Amino acid sequence: MNTEILGVVAQIVLMIVLSYPFGKYMARVYKGEKVWSDFMQPVENLIFRFSGIHPQEEMNWKQFLKALLVVNLFWFIWGMILLVIQGSLPLNPDGNGGQTVHQAFNTCISFMVNCNEQHYSGESNLTYFTQLFVIMLFQFITAATGMAAMAGIMKALGEKTTKTIGNFWNYLVLSCTRILLPLSLVVGFILITQGTPMGFDGKMEITTLEGVTQHVSQGPAAAIIPIKQLGTNGGGYYGVNSSHPLENPTYLSNMVECCSILILPMAMVFAFGFYVKRRKLGYSIYCVMLAAFLIGVCVNVPAEMKGNPRMDAMGIAQDNGAMEGKEVRLGAGATGLWIVATTVTSNGSVNGMHDSTMPVSGMIEMLNMQINTWFGGVGVGWMNYFTFIIIAVFISGLMVGRTPEFLCHKVEAREMKVASMVALLHPFVILVGTALAAYLYVHAPEWVESEGGWLNNPGFHGLSEMLYEFTSVAANNGSGFEGLGDNTWFWNISCGIVLILSRFIPIVGQVAIAGLLAQKTYIPESAGTLKTDTVTFGVMTFAVIFIVAALSFFPAHALSTIAEHFSL
Amino acid sequence: MKNFIKSIRITIAFCILFSVCYVLILWAFGQFFGPGKGNAETVTLNGKVVGAANVGQAFTKDIYFWGRPSAADYKADSSAGSNKGPTNEAYLAEVEARVDSFLVHHPYLERKDVPAEMVTASGSGLDPHITPACAYVQIKRVAEARGMSEEAVKALVDKMVEKPFLGLFGTEKINVLKLNVALEEANPTVK
Best interface-test mutation with A: which of B1, B19, B70, B119 has the largest number of A CBs within 10 A? Predict the structure, then answer.
């Protein structure tokens, strides 16, 4: 059998097999039960004492959200200051300068909201100090923010009736010390043995075999790459992310990194089932998500391995698939898998250039992010799915004439309004943003020219580049059709605004729904209860997601990816 | 305001935990187990460093095997892909030109023998590898330029083929720099 396909299958099996025990473990951590990592307790106590936090103090959903938003506000200030003044801070052996204010604005927000879209290149626009004290730090703590929100929702949904949903600070710290830190260390160890740099020396100057001078960027890369993958962050150490041969040196490192993308979002779905003691519900959600993921894999891997028909028409030997923008050590198959993994989650790291993938792959990449619920970001992915469960419960309740209920709590007008707003916000910002960009491109060509012309490809593909950019920021994904010249005033500011809206409005809405549901009286299940852990309901949710989330984008795809596909 | 002060303190605590402790643990591990002791792993010829093992470099002379086209000109401090779309006519014309130029340098080949990897740019612009097929089509040129027999060069190429991971997963590949260093060791042209 083809070793490239075997590699793809092995990676998928590895993810699924690992996600189950991890899910069980995470549920125990958030419940505060005994686990093997209890030796971290002294460290946690030290953090709590230093920060003046009482981890056992219960919060209601409003206090919980307030703490979450305030700490994020502080991180924004922290990041802005450090990025602008990085040029005069220590750990800067390559002598890189500070970022411009609009670039720092975009970078800072992008990392604060766990998106990690990069309008800069790590080698030249960051110093080792900001890589470690802004980028990497944010990759840990913003992922932990999403996980903490998820833990709060699990607590709310797991109890019969409650006013409180746990302590935000406690969940934040536990997510860091019990889940992200140990896993990152393991992945980091593997990457180092594979040849990823982990030092503080500046660029290595080399005279090549042909006598040319080459400067090899290095630095503390192996510290950043594990958490970039595990925390669904995706912001690479190097400009080209995990397609860089030092960021992702071997096929083994690629397998480890690719599995790290999905492992925690997958585990979180199991964790939910264990936490609320409804395993069957957890499994059914997992199956719907997995099915959607596998559909994407089955489209993209063959499309990439088959190659570009236009290249075949040239009469050359395209035996290994579409290799423009891909690396030989990884191959088209592994890149085909990665592009699905990184877009179903809100990760956004890449191991090949998405801009050069086949149009149909580009469509799947964008659809995954436009739907944004298949596994999704750590914590927040499940929460997006939760929004659609509420809508599905409501619709199916109306269809069969039963009171809509979820986990023994009535779903009423207030929750439905919030859920609908959250669900509609996503297509709204993407389509309005793309429309605005396309309008400016056509009607203000001189201004666009003054911003560098934006697009790297003409025609349908050019529209795809703009659509992809807004899709990626709205999904807090951060990958890009990187041909887009996006380090400009327009893209930095517009993307920055979309990033904030589409990170915090959904989190606030979803935690609020859970908090509101939890306060209601508990209605024990009866024969009249709509069962949410059945195959039928799974299919129903899938249909709702597909109609609400995917079909809104059909006209945009018809003009971009689909049109390009038929012009191949 | 209480939350704000807690935010400042907990951020400092996280800095110590992650940006200092976690980083130092990995750094120490790298000093012992990293193939380059924390830096990029290097390749030497006659005791002189001639490149980073995992970073591709430009080869243009006939006496060497060539790597893939690079959108970054093999500048290892500014990695980049071309980001050209599959239907971009200007891009396809560029590929066409690369095919023609490859055929000029390898007149013994036909169009259908030109591997796509040799005319498409890699994702990073620093791809250190080519496929075995890419090396085989270059053997005749290299052998002639060096005055070696084709069999001798082919034997070297065969030796440098890296099997898929565990023999099961992924692609077969050849590290261009290591192959050229092996060539130099067998048939020195630089001192």
Answer: B19
Determine if residue A432 is left, alpha or beta; phi over 0 gives left, psi from -120 to 50 gives alpha, anything else beta.
alpha
- Structure tokens of A87? 């040029």
Query: Rounded distance, CA A218 to CA A93, Å?
Result: 11
Mutate to test the interface with A, among B18, B32, B43, B190 (most CBs of A within 10 A): B18
B66: nearest CA partner in chain A: A210
* Helix/strand/coil (H/E/C) assignment for every residue in chain B: CHHHHHHHHHHHHHHHHHHHHHHHHHHHHHHHHCCCCCCCCEEEECCEEEEECCCCCCCCCCCCCCCCCCCCCCCCCCCCCCCCCCCCHHHHHHHHHHHHHHHHHCCCCCHHHCEHHHCCCCCCCCCCEECHHHHHCCHHHHHHHHCCCHHHHHHHHHHHCECCECCCECCCEEEHHHHHHHHHHHCCCCC
Q: What is the pLDDT of residues A61-92, one digit of tens each?
A: 999 999 999 999 999 999 999 999 998 888 88
- Residue A410, φ and ψ in degrees, nearest 5: -65, 135
- Note which residues in 405-464 of chain A have CB less than 8 A from chain B: 456-461, 464
CB-based contact A418:A515 (threshold 8 Å):
no
CA distance A144 to A231: 8
* CA atoms of B5 and B143, how far apart (whole Å): 71
Residue type, A237: Y
Tell me whether residues A355 and B165 touch, CB distance under 8 A: no
Cβ within 8 Å, pair A464-B96: no
Q: How distant is the Cα of A81 from the closest Cα of chain B, in angstroms? A: 14
- With 80 as the cut, is the pLDDT of residue B1 above it? no
CA B142, B144, B150, B156 torsion: positive or negative?
A: negative
With CB atoms and an 8 Å threshold, state whether B14 touches A195: no
- What is the per-residue pLDDT across A43-66, written as a single tens digit (0 to 9) for each? 999 999 999 999 999 999 999 999
Distance from CA of B78 to the nearest CA of A (A): 7
Residue A208's φ and ψ, nearest 5 degrees, are: -75, 175
What pLDDT score was predicted for residue B191? 59
Q: Give dist(CA B24, CA A223) in Å, integer.
A: 9
Predicted confidence band at A121 (pLDDT cuts at 50, 70, 90)?
confident
Q: B168 vs chain A: nearest CA distance in angstroms?
A: 5
Give pLDDT tens digits for A212-231.
999 999 999 999 999 999 99
**Closest residue, chain A, to B84 (C-alpha):** A356
Which one, of B44, B56, B118, B54, lies nearest residue A196 by Cα? B54
Using CA coordinates, name the residue in chain A closest to B97: A314
Question: What pLDDT is attached to residue A74?
Answer: 94
Window 74-93 of A: residues touching B by CB (8 A cutoff) are: 74-75, 78
Chain A residues whose CB is inside 8 A of the B83 CB are 325, 353, 355-356, 456-457, 481-483
Sign of the alpha-carbon torsion through B23, B26, B30, B36: negative
Model confidence band, residue A1 (pLDDT cutoffs 50, 70, 90): low
Q: Give CA–CA dist A433/A465, Å, rounded.
A: 12
Return the closest-CA partner of residue B51 out of A203, A244, A206, A248.
A206
This model of the complex carries an ipTM of: 0.94
Domain positions in chain B? 1-39, 40-186
Query: 3-state SS string over A109-175?
Result: HHHHCCCCCCCCCHHHHCCHHHHHHHHHHHHHHHHHHHHHHHHHHHHHHHCCCCCECCCHHHHHHHH
Interface test with chain A among B1, B2, B44, B54, by most A beta carbons within 10 Å: B54
Q: Does residue B188 sit at the A interface (CB-CB below 8 Å)?
A: no
A210 inside 8 A of chain B by CB: yes
Lowest mean pLDDT among A498-502, B8-12, B25-29: A498-502
What is the identity of the amino acid at B142?
Answer: V
